[in-house]
Design goal:
Order of helices and strands: EEEHEHHEHEEEEEH
Length: 241
């Protein structure tokens, strides 16, 4: 049985939506949706929070998430990427508890429509495929397909993105378009060893499998306008308290 460490990342000091991670969304703290989905999935060996904010830590504990450390300030500002945050988590748990997971599951609180079955299915996909990682994606609508994309050249004329060809050469038939996908951001599941790769530490590896989710679950909250959209989406999905 592989050990999977779930890591929820939630720093304080959100500028777009103050107090975002613990702000009530349909009566429940935003972060609670992620904690509950991870715990209900039944596949996470440990579920921890990486935060620099005591208030976020307290709410997470109330919902049953472990907070084994506080994140250092140098990796808690708005310029910090997920890579050093995850490296710090793995290093700290090894030094503190001797704990070394096989896989890491990165979960962002800004994806409250993520469901327990998404996490479980992504885990099965990774184990069966033997891939380095699994990334949650959703299909890009046909109108936004990269082979239909255009730009305006220096002469003010429309040309095809990538090829710089005239637009009459763009693919017109839907049947001739391969499916395109975008990263939903709700699930990043990968082999722990990738974080310490001597060449280029990362959390994708050479082989990343797509876990395709329905667009109705692709809820991502980053700016104030997203909040109302998230409420509407969760009501439609009947995901509330």
């Amino acid at each position: 049985m592989h050990k999977i460490l779930g890591v929820i990342t939630a720093r304080g000091g959100s500028k777009g939506i103050p107090g975002k991670n613990i702000k009530p969304l349909l009566g429940k703290p935003l972060i609670a949706y992620t904690i509950e989905a991870a715990k209900a999935s039944g596949v996470v060996d440990r579920l921890i929070l990486s935060t620099d904010d005591p208030a976020i830590a307290e709410v997470a504990r109330q919902y049953g998430c472990e907070v084994p450390f506080m994140r250092p300030a140098e990796i808690a500002d708005d310029k910090a990427s997920h890579l050093p945050v995850l490296q710090h988590a793995i290093k700290t748990l090894k030094e503190k508890d001797g704990y070394e997971p096989d896989y890491v599951l990165l979960l962002q609180p800004t994806s409250p429509a993520r469901q327990a079955f998404h996490i479980k299915e992504a885990t099965v996909l990774l184990e069966k495929s033997g891939a380095d990682s699994v990334l949650s994606v959703a299909e890009i609508p046909e109108n936004y397909h990269h082979k239909k994309a255009m730009f305006v050249n220096d002469g003010g004329a429309l040309r095809l993105v990538g090829s710089n060809r005239p637009i009459h050469e763009r693919v017109a038939r839907r049947q001739d378009l391969e499916k395109n996908y975008w990263s939903v951001g709700s699930i990043y599941l990968f082999k722990t060893g990738l974080l310490s790769d001597p060449g280029k530490p990362n959390f994708y590896g050479e082989k990343t499998m797509p876990y395709v989710i329905d667009a109705k679950y692709a809820v991502d909250i980053n700016v104030p306008e997203d909040w109302e959209a998230a409420e509407e989406a969760l009501r439609e999905l009947r995901i509330t308290n």
